[in-house]
Specification:
Layout (H helix, E strand, L loop, with lengths): L2 H12 L3 H17 L5 H9 L9 H13 L1
Helix pairs in contact: 1-2
GO molecular function, one term: translation initiation factor activity
InterPro entries: Sig_transdc_resp-reg_C-effctor, Spo0A_C, WH-like_DNA-bd_sf
Keywords: Initiation factor, Protein biosynthesis
Length: about 70
């Protein structure tokens, strides 16, 4: 399943738009990456997720986690 279909499915299940899904997912990712009082395990996990600009996009975050799960 590609990212577009994932967003659509989530949006449909929750009665919102795809844009709202993407915006809320990114807000959640931004929140945890900007959090000051992170545990060591949070730091390790965040450092293991690759991104081009420090805080991953929703696509980068999901793809990185999916890759880790496949291992």
């Amino acid at each position: 399943m590609n990212m577009r279909n994932i967003y659509r499915k989530i949006a449909k299940e929750h009665g919102v738009t795809v844009a709202e899904v993407k915006r809320e997912m990114q807000a959640a990712i931004d929140h945890v990456y900007k959090k000051i009082d992170k545990s060591e395990s949070e730091k390790i996990i965040q450092e293991s997720i690759s991104s081009k600009a420090g805080i991953p996009t929703t696509e980068e975050f999901i793809k990185s986690l999916a890759h880790k799960i496949k291992r």
